[in-house]
Amino acid sequence: MGTLDGKVALVTGGSRGIGRGIAERLGRDGAVVAVAFARETAAAEEVVERIRKDGGRAFAVQAELGEHGDARALWDAFDARVERPGVDIIVNNAAVGRSSDLESLTEDEFDRLFAVNVRAPFFVVQQGLGRLRDGGRVINISSGAARLALPEIMAYGATKGALDTFTLNLAKQLGPRGITVNSVAPGIVDTDTNAGWLRGNPEAQAQAASQSALGRIGRPEDIAGVVSFLASDDARWVTGRVVDVTGGAGL
């Protein structure tokens, strides 16, 4: 038996990168996984198929986050596909992964960052509360950029700081229902988001690896394992925390 047998999980941004790693891990651990995606239908269906090949259960749900009404559209799509009403685990992973520096950032980019990275998780949870079962889990994917000074992506870091504040307050509010709420904060991870500057660039790879006390670049499965723990009953006494999964960056 898996640690998440009988649970239903929603993973936003589940079609690639860290979200894909999380979706596949939760599926292997027994959860029925709703793989939420914005546009990449083929990628989402590939994740669903991979989970099913591993013996799990999954389905894809489409909704473009960052627009007004996005949370309602996401939950409508979820309700139409889920076999048993309700959800046990919400993973807010979808995000705009980088930002311009202070001099280059436009108001439109700023608004888009906060719409996807902060507003969307807020309303996904708000409108999911009636579906979220007592004893459930909310796991927000934050970033080491919320605690490390990285001026070149400060707007992105600010969104993740806001997400951590959301985590803290939500944990207090939902505690009486036995629902835990935590943030998971990755560092540099080898994903498509970072591919442009990281892959095929030995110098960039060496620099990125040197930032970790463990001397390597993070992988999606490094993050997924921590998320799986927080989603399990073993983490029932952990809430309102930011779990650092940067490999010891900045030590």
TrEMBL record:
EC numbers on record: 1.1.1.47
Entry superkingdom: Bacteria
GO molecular function, one term: glucose 1-dehydrogenase [NAD(P)+] activity
Top-level EC class as recorded in UniProt: oxidoreductase
Domain Ketoreductase: residue ranges: 7-187
UniProt keyword annotations, A-Z: Oxidoreductase
Pfam assignment, any one: adh_short_C2
Database matches in Gene3D superfamilies: NAD(P)-binding Rossmann-like Domain
SUPFAM superfamilies xref list: NAD(P)-binding Rossmann-fold domains (SSF51735)
Family classification: Belongs to the short-chain dehydrogenases/reductases (SDR) family.
Name of the protein: Glucose 1-dehydrogenase
